[in-house]
Amino acid sequence: PKTGRPRSIAAEHYPVLVKLAHAQPYSSQAELALV
Fold first, then answer.
1. Among the listed residues 35, 25, 24, 3, the one whose alpha carbon sits nearest the alpha carbon of residue 12
2. pLDDT one-digit tens code per residue, 1-35
3. pTM higher than 0.70, yes or no?
4. Per-domain residue ranges for the chain?
5. CA-angle at 31, arms to 12 and 9, nearest 5°
6. Sequence-distant (≥ 6) Cβ neighbours of residue 35 within 8 angstroms
7. In b/e form, how buried is each residue of 1-30, taking b as 16+ CB within 10 angstroms?
8. How far, in Å, CA of 27 to CA of 31, rounded?
């Protein structure tokens, strides 16, 4: 719900990280490290 929380960045990065995690589980840790 859009209650005014500035989570646009998280909203864009979360699905990307999830995609990478599903595509390459070992890469998920590397991506999280970059974040």
1. 35
2. 556 666 677 777 778 877 776 666 555 566 666 65
3. no
4. 11-35
5. 20
6. 13, 17
7. eeeeeeeeeeeeeeeebeeeeeeeeeebee
8. 6
